[in-house]
Design a protein that fits this description.
Shape: elongated
Structural class: mainly alpha
Number of strands: 2
Radius of gyration: 19 Å
Strand content: under 5%
Number of domains: 1
Helix content: 55-70%
């Protein structure tokens, strides 16, 4: 279980230090535990394992003749899956909290908490679109979809802040990352929820995430239309 590995890693670091990388032990443990909840919602999508295959084997035909949009269909299924994942994640969260009893610190500002939740929802939509952009390559190279999807997910895990808080990185890299979708998926929502980012900057981050969402949607629709023109499943 990744959270246990991360917990024991940071626990060993803080056994020798009261503060490490600008975090107290309580702040870092809060981050580690919130990663479990945020990633369970934002970065879970059964469609990532199905869309590429349905394009490759021609099953997509069954959906194109129906009145429901294919991507909307999978978005609905993904969200149902996210809610189920959250039930398990909440249970796991409280079980681990009961075993280790870490101190969990959240922002005392209802505005910041609300902004954090809003960003989690926006980020889940960005994640859906980015992964659909990756699996859309199945229209042209169906045999390589899984490898590309795996690579994208690995990069997301690291650059989203699932392994460690991104503000541990050099400031230049962190500045560059804010122009990508990655930190909006895990790091920024948690940083807002725990109060490490003030309200003014949190509002700016929300607007930046909306801009990324709009760009991601435009790219996916453009690639999807081109892919459908190239799609061929004769005899399926």
């Amino acid at each position: 279980m990744r959270i246990l590995m991360t917990y024991f890693l940071w626990n060993s670091i803080f056994s020798q230090n009261k503060i490490a990388f600008g975090y107290t032990k309580e702040q870092m443990m809060t981050y580690v535990f919130l990663v479990l909840l945020v990633t369970s919602f934002v970065m879970s999508a059964p469609s990532n394992d199905n869309v590429g295959g349905e394009i490759s084997d021609g099953t997509l035909n069954n959906f194109l003749i129906k009145p429901v949009g294919y991507l909307r269909y999978w978005l609905t299924r993904d969200w149902a899956s996210k809610l189920l994942n959250m039930l398990f994640a909440v249970f796991e969260f409280f079980l681990l909290w009961f075993l280790f009893r870490p101190q969990i610190y959240l922002s005392q500002s209802p505005v910041q908490l609300s902004l954090g939740v809003v960003l989690v929802i926006i980020s889940s939509l960005i994640f859906f679109l980015i992964t659909k952009l990756a699996v859309s390559t199945a229209f042209w190279v169906p045999e390589n979809t899984w490898g590309l999807m795996f690579t994208v997910l690995v990069f997301m895990e690291i650059l989203a802040g699932s392994i460690f808080p991104l503000d541990l990185l050099p400031k230049t890299i962190m500045t560059l990352l804010q122009f990508t979708p990655f930190p909006y998926m895990v790091y920024y929502p948690i940083a807002i929820l725990v109060g490490r980012i003030d309200t003014t900057i949190a509002v700016r981050i929300i607007f930046q995430s909306l801009a990324l969402l709009a760009v991601s949607h435009w790219l996916v629709m453009k690639v999807w239309r081109k892919g459908l023109k190239n799609y061929n499943a004769v005899g399926i």
